[in-house]
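User: Structure tokens for this complex, please. No commentary.
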Amino acid sequence: MAQMRVNPNRMELMKLRSRRQVAQRGHKLLKDKLDELMKEFLARIGESRTLRAEVERELFAAYGTVAVARGVAGRAALAAALASGNPEPIVSVAERNVMSVRIPEFTLAALPAPGGYSLVTTPIAFDSALAALAAVAPRLIVLAEKEKAIELLAAEIERTRRRVNALEHVLIPQLDETIRSIGMKLDEAERSNLTRLMKVKDMIEEQGR
Amino acid sequence: MSMRKVAIVGDATSVAGFRPLGFAVFPLAVPSAARGIWGELVGGEYAAVLVTEAVFEEIEDLIAAQADVPLPAVTVIPGAGSAGGVGQAKIDAAIERALGTKVFIREEDG
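Assistant:
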């Protein structure tokens, strides 16, 4: 175990003792934080798993209706119908703080109404296709939000766990060892001092006789 | 509180349908073209960037670099022809790294 290089005197001993106390307290706090993060994390992963399975199913179904529309109306007509529409800022982003991890929260505003193509000249398959896509779109946003939260929490858990381990396995043992060794050196110095004094005392007594 | 857009990136067959809904669609001829537009996608204009599995496989390193950043949320979705499951695998990998074990990822079998 590596030791810290300090002067073996009482001042240093006091400093080291208080550092150790601080490290101990910090370690407990970080462990508590890790436990809370874990609880939050585990609660979310089951939920997101189910959501993803559902969303993938819905998405495949939506792709299916688009393929039908393409089959009915032809590739060019479909492409023309889908060319209408411009990117809009449709998601409102808020931030939430979970155990010091900032997680974004998305709220989908109302989607622009699918229009821009003539209702008369296009087959019903178009409308079903767009309806299916419009139904899955909000679910995709929710999925993105939930999975992002999981990613951010996972990163924070790793970070916190590394710090807990660093305190527990490196810093605190180092401090303990150094404290012990300084203590021993001080005791030794004390002992040799005592011995010297006793010797001097004996010498004086000897002379006195 | 801010309003941002949603981007969807992948082959035209999969993503074109989202344009009338106000999504910013990026139909790509080849998945690797995503690398060129990545800077724009993560620039801050988009709250969420949905990528198809094919695109994910091409730019996995770029996406991994975003894991720590709150926005945009990069999510993998199956494309029209793909099998699905890649997105879940990505999340599972993150979960395994965090927990140090695969145990909690199992489906609950009752």
